[in-house]
Amino acid sequence: MRPARRDRRALLVVIAVALAPALLLRELIGVFTSGTGTTVLDGALLPDPAEAAGWAGRLLVAVGWIVAFAAGTVVAAGGQRGRHVSPWAALRVAVRRLPWLMVMLLLVVIAAQGLMLFGGAALSMLGARASVPELAAMSPFVLAPVLIVLATRLLVIPAIVLGDGAGNRLAHAHALAAGRLMRTGVSLLLGVVVLPLVATALAETIAMRAPAAAVPLEALGLAAAAFLQSRTLADVYLRRRAGRPGPEVSLDEVDRLLAELSAPAAPSRAAGAGAIALLLAPALAGGAVVVGDPFGGPRATRKEVSWSGDVLVTAWPQGGHPVVVTSWGPHWCLDDACAAVVSQSSEPLMLGGPYGATAVTADGTVVAAGIRGREMPGVIKTDGDDAVQLQRCSAPWAPADAKPKPGTCEDGITRWHSGGDEDEAQLAVAAGADGAIVVATARPLLPAADGKARVQLAVTRCGTVHCTTRSLKVLATLPLSLDLPDGRFAPAPLLRLTLDAQDRPTVLLRDPAGAVAHVVTCADADCDEVRRSTATATAPADAAAPAVAVTGADGTPHLAAVPFLDDSAAHPVALITGNARFGLAVEPVPADAGALTGSLPGRRLVLWQCPPGATGAERRTVLAPIELEPRQAGIAVAPDGRVLVTYADDGHRYTILVTGSGKATKGAYCQGFAG
To answer: Rounded mean pLDDT of 214-237?
Structure first.
């Protein structure tokens, strides 16, 4: 058997024995720390046990890594000198020298920080006067000596574990590097710093695409890093000067130590296989939670979807699958996780203005309405009034005799009662129980004689999408403008329409000038009698801020503020269903939560379930890490309590199906859920 192969097998054994217990203990600490706050997302635990273990877990892994490459250096030195070193004896040496190793590594880290600050300052001074090509050309001359001097200090590690150069080992390491600084520094820089970082970064990149395999990949990445570091340290430390004068390592002292640590034979193939199995053992802690579910936490499934546009409505019809309506059209999920969908385009939503007015019925039917303009030659004659396009789409699971056919849409364009010289109206739409399409209109009238703005609220009931038969009822004329106080166009719809079980419309118009909502409720489906009220909203006075409609005990809706995701520009999302309030939030992930290089996404999406009045047991469910801002988000709740979340992140769109509720906790998010 070649010595190199024996060396590699012994190195693998000693590294596995040092790393595996540290990783396993960290996983156990993280699992039990998270407890019921753990979400199982596609077979992976969130938050990651490495993050949940905190500083205790990071310290355990750091100690295991130090012991691994220190003991590995002893084994690798034995391979260089032709001796079989017992892995257990090498581990005992590393553990005995651990305090010195930690002190010396701390000094190396401090020196590294100082040297990097010096190099960065030098580059910044050059950058103030140099062009980009000049700066690129000068960078190696500034940084290379800094990094090489730093790398040579790493020779103190083999000096400690091999017992050579007793006394001031830092001075001993410097003396060994003197006269061959460039070659020694480059070798150590590549083998101890650069290549191990590449190995761990590669393992992390794969782990981000396969989170369920993150722990074994981390173990293999750390083992590969320790392997490279051990071989490099031993090789550079024992390297001779090839006839040139200068301090040398005392090979007699090294051989004397290795003789005391020697073993009769190299580890067998079975020992090598056992070492690999040992490295995979830490994954059992998280795997037991995934399979056994001892804490009864929520489980989630994430799917990437292909629909486009802003999410307007996310619904979950009784007895069906989720329905997501975007500004491009409706998308019916063929399963609860939306792994497969049937989609249709929607001209009223894509081309109609000023907002996409749409609604989803209890059986999955989607209705939409949009203003297509005031002049549509060859399509419809409006004489300057608005042309409104209506659309009805049947769900794929609709009866075979449904109109339109299951999974298809029917459109129609009709002349509306708004338009002329008026500003553009706002629409809201709902589907009547008799198959009618009900449209609420907030129509900006021409200013009155006193110059004050006015808005007319009306409800139109169309028998079909062509609206050849209709009833129009004017509900109220309100003294307000649909524009924001500073003259800006409101970025979110101000008008809402709902139908109760008796098909009676309720129209809510948010006043953009203050925290007030005007509510008009019809006493019957035809709105022959109406009841008008003005509710003080708990939403922010700025109508550009989002709000959700909350139905009070008397059945009258009012507005409630939606807590922001965080201090970012992402649009917050919330849902009111029954007595529960659901909302999406973004929270930071510790920058060093990643167990390998610390470059995991710095934020994650969290689902909050808030009790009425923002008091009581809020429940928090960790969903997924995010790269950028969670755009185009939506929430739907199934009759059985499952939750579907849809969002876009970094150019990709996802759905997450959540079964079960998260950990009861106290959080600032629900405190901001007013109303």
So the answer is: 89
